Amino acid sequence: MTATPVPARADLARNLRRDLARGAIGPVICAVVLVALLSAWVATGAAGTLSQVRIQVTQAAVPMRAFTPQAASAIGTATTFLTIRNLSDSPDELIAARSPIARHVALTTRTGLAAARSFVSGLAVPAHGTLTLSPFGNDLVLQDPAPFETAGTVPLILTFRNAGTLTINATVTAPGTP
């Protein structure tokens, strides 16, 4: 029977250092890559630009289409009055709107009272600024809405490019009034 030689203490210490180095190399490489990526993010100026956009709606009204339900049902669209304030340092954009009472809600603009409405894909809300919507300029148009004239409010779901989605209840008002 042959005896297995017992490794010397120096060999044990060397093997232990080698095994520890092999086990630590992966996490060290990951840390170096992460620090490099974060440094590049800061160097390009992108760090700190993820400010939260805060939107506030201070006026929301959907005028009745007519004073009687019969006359209102003959009108295929409803307009809105909204005042949207951007309380943040970053500009935003209203990119969509919907309502459970309307088949479709369109973003529109008009350059004058006699001008036709143009459909747009978004309406800018400047940083620390206001976007005013009315039938006379930029507007949300509810197309083929269900009768809402006897309701107290109309729910509107507004989608902003940066601020996300905001649900409001617009007051139903007399025809042509905010």
Give a structural overview.
The protein folds into two domains: about 5-50; about 55-175, Immunoglobulin-like, CATH 2.60.40. Helix content is about 20%, strand content about 35%. The protein is built from two helices and eleven strands.
List the helices and strands and how they pair.
Elements: H1 9-43, E1 55-63, H2 69-73, E2 77-78, E3 81-86, E4 92-98, E5 102-109, E6 118-119, E7 123-125, E8 130-133, E9 139-145, E10 153-160, E11 164-173
Parallel strand pairs: 1-11
Antiparallel strand pairs: 1-3, 2-9, 3-8, 4-7, 4-10, 5-6, 5-9, 10-11
The ordered H/E elements are HEHEEEEEEEEEE
- Counting DSSP E segments of at least 2 residues, the number of strands comes to 11
Strand line-up across the major sheet: 7-4-10-11-1-3-8
Low-confidence stretches: none
- Count of helical regions: 2
Q: Domains counted in the coordinates: how many?
A: 2
What is the annotated CATH architecture of the largest domain? Sandwich
Mean pLDDT: 85
Give the terminus-to-terminus CA distance. Answer: 104 Å
CATH class of the largest domain: Mainly Beta
- Gyration radius, rounded: 31 Å
Going by CATH, the homologous superfamily of the largest domain would be: PCu(A)C copper chaperone
What does the largest sheet look like?
7 strands, mixed
Helical content stands at 10-25%
Secondary structural class: alpha+beta
Proportion in β-strands: 35-45%
What CATH calls the topology of the largest domain is Immunoglobulin-like
Shape: elongated
